[in-house]
Structures are given as structure tokens and as C-alpha cells.
């Protein structure tokens, strides 16, 4: 395995990342004070850095070995091979290409907020379901959960994850125009611009009242989400922040 080592962090090296991928990098990894770019073979790079040669390893196996269980509110998120003695509600997720192993701040905050706001029997929509983790969490709390995603490749993974957890959540490919409300609660871990764009459509998902949990918002982009949601008569109930990520919860009444 060939690694090109650059001094700095992801933020300062952001400019180079598109170029490194264009040159054939298969992945970037942040280490203390440096970023490693993994290449299948050496290439000429006009960048300040140096090449390292690493012994070939099964990277997927190494990644899986390093993956730790994650606690989020009443839940612990486990990979199928993890053993866990704790009393938390278990969500088992097979780490794959779909986003949502619970390790990202945006997923964790959404899952914790979901647990505070979900009651048995509620109709819950997980918009941008990825691995299905949030829909599965809602189903474990007794909700009738639907996960929807624009990316068709994630749906079989979400279905498989629901099977691991022995819950009845439904999944389908599509987006907001492909579903019919009303829902009692909608959770969406997307990104700020998309939340702002969807603000009016979000309102149409609810009956008389409901709860909207929006995650995936970079703190610096939060104002565009807040003004779009306020313009559509949503009332802010709570705000959480972890690192640079914000999760907003609104009442729709
Ligand atoms: N819900 C999971 C979680 O919280 O970890 C996955 C969130 S991941 C950040 C965002 C997901 O939203 C991706 O799977 C992506 O395919 C999906 N997505 C992006 N735009 C979408 C849209 N317009 N409609 C539906 N899904 C969308």
C-alpha cells in the first residue's frame, strides 16, 4: 500500500483533496498533524509531502476490528460481531457503503433526540435513511417507521439492518414527493441547504401537529435553516451542537 503523507489537517488540506482523488487516491485519513492519502500505486504529485510504503493489509478487516460500539441516549449501536453486556436498547448495523453506523455526530444527535421525542404508535418518517439506523431506532421505540432515501443502493442495506434488529420498519427509494403524510414525527439527517429548500414541503408532511428533527447542519450554515423554517411557521423547540454540527428540533402546529 502506497501512502502520500501531507503535514496539516483536513481543513487546511481541503484544497488538495479533490486533486488527490483525481490523481487516483482511494481514501484520505486524518492522523495527528498530518493527512494520509492512500494510493494503489505511486504517482507524480506536485505537492509538499512524502511517500510511505505500508505492508498490505486487509483494510476492511482492520476497519471492522477498530469499529467500537456507540452509545446514543437509550441505545447502543453495535456491529453484528460486537458483544455487549449493557442494558441499552441494541441497534445492530452492518457497516457498509450506506451512511449511518452511529459514529458520526449528526447521526448520534438525531438518534438521541429521536429517543426523547418518539412515543409508541407514532408514525415516523426518516428522510435520507442511509443504513436505516434512525427508522430502526424509531421502530424499537414502538413507532410505525418509514425510511426513504434517494439512493436506491442503500435500501437493501436498510432492509437487511431492520431484519438484524427484528423490527418492522418499511423502506423505499425516493424523496419527499414520493410519500404521503401525515406523520407525527419526521427526522432528516441531510444538509443545511436541503433543509432550507424543503422547508415548505416539511410543513405538508404533518397533520394538526408534529415534531421535526433536522440534523446534518454545519453550525456556520445554521442561519439559512432557521430563517427558512421560521418563514414556514415552525417553532424551535431545542438546539444541540456537537463540534461543528447542529441538530434542530421544531414543532409544527
Ligand atoms: N439517516 C442516516 C443517519 O442519520 O446516519 C443517514 C444520513 S446520510 C448523512 C444522508 C442520506 O440522505 C444519504 O443516504 C443520502 O442518499 C440521502 N439523501 C440525500 N438527498 C436526499 C433527498 N433529496 N431525498 C432523500 N434522501 C436523500
Q: Care to describe what's here?
A:
There is one protein chain. The protein is an alpha/beta fold and 253 residues long. The protein folds into 2 domains: 61 residues, Sun protein, domain 3 (Alpha-Beta Plaits), CATH 3.30.70.1170; 154 residues, Rossmann fold, CATH 3.40.50.150. Helix content is 28%, strand content 33%. The protein contains 7 helices and 14 strands. It has a 7-stranded mixed β-sheet, with helices on both faces. Strands 2-3-1-4 form a 4-stranded antiparallel β-sheet, with helices on one face. The longest helix is centred in the middle third of the chain and has 13 residues. The radius of gyration is 20 Å and the shape is globular. The model has no long low-confidence stretch (mean pLDDT 92). The site of S-adenosylmethionine has 20 residues, from helix 3, strand 8, helix 4 and strand 9.
Short description:
The protein is an alpha/beta fold and 253 residues long. It contains seven helices and 14 strands.
